Amino acid sequence: MIKKILIIDDDKLVGLTLQKLFKKNENYITKYVINGKQGICEVENNPPHLVLLDFQLPDMNGFQILKRIKQIDESIIVIMITSFGEVRKAVTAIKLGAYDFFTKPFDKEEIIKVAQNALKVINTSENQEIDIQKMMGNSEALQNMLKFIKRVSKTDISVFLEGETGTGKELFSRMIHKSSNRSEFPFITVDCGSIPETLFESELFGHKKGAFTGAMNDKKGKFELANKGTLFLDEINSLPLSMQPKFLRALQEKEIQRLGDENPIKIDIRIIAASNKNIYEDVRTEKFREDLFYRIHEFKIDLPTLNERKTDIPVIANFFLQEITKQYDRKINAFSGDAMNLLLNYPWPGNIRELKNVIKSAVLLTDSDIIEPDHLILKNIRTSDTEDLLLENFTAKAEIKIIKRALKKANNNKSDAAGFLGISRSQFYKKLEKFKIS
Fold it and tell me: Are the C-beta atoms of residues 187 and 234 closer than 8 Å to each other?
């Protein structure tokens, strides 16, 4: 798949050099702009996979642009480019969501390598639907759900996914999209719970330049970006009541209007909505419009909890074990019988997401080739606040242990050690500083 790279740098020599570097690879499409406003406009209207962002720009600083990019689309990968002596600012940028950073002058081969590694994250995400099918298991609850997904995928009917946190709502919505006739077109996600009410209209429908204070450029909304594809609306019950009539009208009329624009824009999208709360109560208490509810609730799929598909746990756990040991370059072959029994008898309030985190911690903790019960950190075996604090310290010690092991394997080469751990150099340096590892 072709990857789009956006370069934002007011130094034309740097910008054109980077553009020339990436143009050598036919799998990349590059765009170069010279200031923050142009960069944000490009991200809003033609979202890239990767942004190379200079920290010092004439109109905005890197923090402002990085925050805005992440607000537009959290999945966009950002690599900061800083001047010598700005490493502290770069570390702050990492905390705000940047993937990595480079200081000028930079090594051309190294920046290409890091960009390629960053884009592998996207490839992993895009192939996640395939991987997840390998580790799903064969429980009756899961197979019933997959039958519904297969049945509904080829239609344009609106789908409502209902399930607890951690059951994989976005993952299964992507499966529906990938199996649909719209699979070659965009899959756009909207986390309704994270958008301030005042920004909903602009985020969903876009705006024209000058529509309000701060609207410096035209902006496409999520509906327009998803045209011909699928729009996934997570936590749909968080959609403000004031926005619901316009939302319903867009679905009924199949057209939208950008904020500040009188001209309608035709749209053709498939809606998948999800909620982990009881939306029926919101409908009953008139916090959510009944007519909109029925529009997005044409076909409901209940996502089973991990507790309802216990027979799948060995398959899922072993899949995660293989994935995580490969990531951390560990040789761990299996779970002991007692460890697997513990996994099978735990209620998993955090579902699949919690299971993966527990296995990741276990991989960090063990020195043997077998996961034992003592390596499994499970929430419901804690008995006091004091134990929670001790457990946090224990987890920190495990992280220190694996970092030192990676350094030893890399002969103290920090870049190689970061690679063994599957994290960026900047993230690795941040951990060294956090744990005071020299």
Answer: no
| Cβ–Cβ under 8 Å, residues 158 and 271 | yes
* Contact criterion met (CB below 8 Å) for 34 and 15: yes
When pLDDT is cut at 50, 70 and 90, the band that residue 381 belongs to is very low
| Mean model confidence pLDDT for the chain | 84
Does residue 390 surpass a pLDDT of 70? no
Retrieve residue 266's tokens. 């035709």
Distance of alpha carbon 143 from alpha carbon 128, whole angstroms: 18
Output the six-digit token pair for 11.
Answer: 């130094």
pLDDT band, very low/low/confident/very high, at 274 (cuts 50, 70, 90): very high
Question: Which residues have a Cβ under 8 Å from the Cβ of 240 and sit 6 or more positions away?
Answer: 197, 200
209 versus 232: the higher-pLDDT residue is 232
d(CA 243, CA 259): 13
Beta bridge partners of 28: 3
Distance, in Å, from the CA atom of 63 to the CA atom of 383, rounded to the nearest integer, reads: 42
Q: Where are the domains of the chain?
A: 3-126, 132-304, 310-435
Q: Which of 12-21, 98-107, 284-293 has the lowest mean pLDDT?
A: 98-107
Q: Is the pLDDT of residue 128 over 70?
A: no
Alpha-carbon distances of 141 from 303, 312, 324, rounded to whole Å: 9, 10, 26
Does domain 310-435 match CATH 1.10.8.60?
A: yes
- Cα distance between residue 424 and residue 77, in whole Å: 12
| CATH class as words, domain 132-304 | alpha beta
Cis peptide bond N-terminal to 105, omega within 30: yes
Nearest partner of 273 among 152, 183, 158, 147, judged by Cα: 158
The matching CATH number, chosen from 1.10.10.10, 3.30.70.100, 3.40.50.2300, 3.40.50.150, for 3-126 is: 3.40.50.2300
Interacting residues of 215 by C-beta distance below 8 A, sequence separation 6+: 202, 207, 208, 209, 259, 260
pTM of the predicted model as reported, rounded to 2 decimal places: 0.60
What span, in angstroms and rounded, lies between the C-alpha atoms of 51 and 41?
A: 13
